[in-house]
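Request from the bench team (R.T.):
"We need a structural guess for the complex before ordering more zinc ion. Sequence and SMILES attached. Just send the tokens back."

Command: build protein-zinc ion structure.
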Amino acid sequence: MFRKLVDRAILQYKVTTKSDLHIGGHTTVEPAEVDNPVIKNTEGYPIIPGSSLKGVMRTEVERLLKGLDIKVCDVFDNESYGGCNECPVCYLFGGKDLASSIRIKDAVADNKKTLIRDSVAIDRQTRKARDGGKYDIEAVPRGTIFKGTITIENTGIESDGYLYDHAKLGGLLGLIDFFNACSGNIGHAVSRGFGEVEIEIEKLNLITAQDYLDGKYEGSEYSPQTDEYQDLKSNAAADWSKYVKEDKHVCQEG
Ligand SMILES: [Zn+2]
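Reply to R.T.: structure attached below.
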């Protein structure tokens, strides 16, 4: 929990599959009829778990910031496993003792259609198909739309008495653009052409503490096609960029 709530952003997001998608998991509906079922909700609709998207975004922002020589913690480094609590990545997605301020809810498919593809298990040693190694893989077809919600508690980052207004929002929106520009992939069997997706924001509500007090529980609503949204987005991007360049805020070395 956060000691104080300055504002909250609620983003409605949409994921469109550009190729077949396989995110495996235990299905809660009926016993699986295929070897590798896709993960579904209790009503049988395929889902993209929020944790999967978050994992992809976290890895992406880590790589980006490292590319800018900004020190961030590394989830692959056992020393800082779970996050150092202090770097920009931790401020966005949480650290060992720092709650994540970005919560991504599962995205749910708009229909139940899936397809079954045959696959062949490859023997790691011989690199040839294993005897009897044929198995089925269930996938969500290309063109499926998933919808979900992202919330950000406190879109700004306060550091050394300075408030970077909508830094977290800017960081997240920039990441989504970057992900799409590089034809982002999620899920499994990516090397076989699965999992190409596009993420779009359909609506953003920004609710301040004052809005709550005034009973304006929806706050201000922004639609991506408007100038207001683009202004908010570019200001937020500038706040994020200013924040990450302040190198005194990043992880200590060693
Ligand atoms: Zn960190």
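Two things stood out. The CA atoms of residues 73 and 84 lie 6 Å apart. Residues 7-59+101-247 form one domain.
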